[in-house]
Amino acid sequence: MSTTTTAVIPLTTAEAETLIGAARRAAETAGVAVSVTVLDAGGHPLAFRRDDRAVLISGETSTRKAYTALQLNAPTADLVDLVKPDGPFHSLPTALDRPLLFIAGGIPVHRDGRLVGAIGVGGGAPEQDHAFAATALEELSR
Fold it and tell me: Is pLDDT of 26 > 70?
């Protein structure tokens, strides 16, 4: 029995810059100053940008949202209820050396059904950050 494996092309820095640009344009249209982080499949930064007017903590939140989406292979918006006091992941945000952040705005990036990275947006309301990240993924898939 033979099995074939297909290599998945990693997320490139050019694609990371496309994600950053698309998320920032969506945020600018909404009048929101944000930070955007793109990580590769190993959790390493490929691109980061913080708008001049974005609150400083947005740089950290965008990175942690991307990291959380990557590690759990799910949008952070879908994970919020899991860390509530009665949720199954209640202790997860503080259980690891690198804290996870369960606030909407992080989305994994897939290619051919495989996880290749993640984008995180911070600086707006959680629902806005999620929408900006989703808009960026739509532009990347064009």
Answer: yes
